[in-house]
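Possible regression after last week's pipeline update?

I re-ran a chain I had predicted before the update to compare outputs. Posting the input and the new output here so someone can diff against the archived version. Not blocking, just want to make sure nothing changed silently.
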Amino acid sequence: MKDVLIQYMKRFSNLSEEELRKLTENVPVADFKKGTILLQQGEIPDKCYFVLKGCVRQYAVAADGKETTFNFFTEEQSVTIFNQHSIDKASNYSLSCLEDCTLITGDLFTEQEMYDLHPVLQTMTRKMIEEDIGVMRDDFASFVASSPEERYKALQEKRPDLINRVPQYQLASYLGITPESLSRIKKRFGESHLRVVD
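New output (post-update):
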C-alpha cells in the first residue's frame, strides 16, 4: 500500500526508490471506517493525512445548520488543515471518511522533529504544499469565474470518479449549486443515472 506514497514522493524528490522505501518504512498507516470523523469543526488540528485508499470530505456547518462541502480528498492526496494564522488555532472545518479509508497519519506537533531527523522531507513537503496551493488557487479562480455547467464539466475532466463516488447533495454543495440543479445539469450532459443519497 505504501507504493502509492512512494510513487507520489518521486514527483518531488530525486531519491532512489530504495531510499524512499527506507524513508517511509516507519511511516504510520491506519485504517478508518466509513463515517469516522478525523477532525471536528472547532477542534485544534493535530494530525495530517495522506490518502492511500478511500475518500475524505472537508465540510463545515454554519450557525443556521447549513452544511457546505469544500473538498474531497482521494488517493494520492494530502489532507491538512492549515490554520496557524487564526488566533485560537481552531479548525473551521470537519474532516470525515466517506468510505473505508487507509491513511498515512502524521503528527503536526512533531513535524519539526521529523524534518530534523530527515532533512530531505522538509524540501519535499514544501514542494508538495506549493503544488497543492497552486492547484487550489487555480481551482478557486476557475470556480468563481465559471457557470454551474462549466464547473460540472471541469469536474468531469479533472475528477470524474467523484461523480458516482459521493452523495449527490454533497457533490452539489461542492459545486455551489442545489441537488436539483445538479440533476438538471446531469440530464443535459446525458447522464440520467444519479447516485442515491446515503
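Follow-up from reviewer: compared with the archived run. The domain at 3-111 is CATH 2.60.120.10 (Jelly Rolls). Marking as no regression found.
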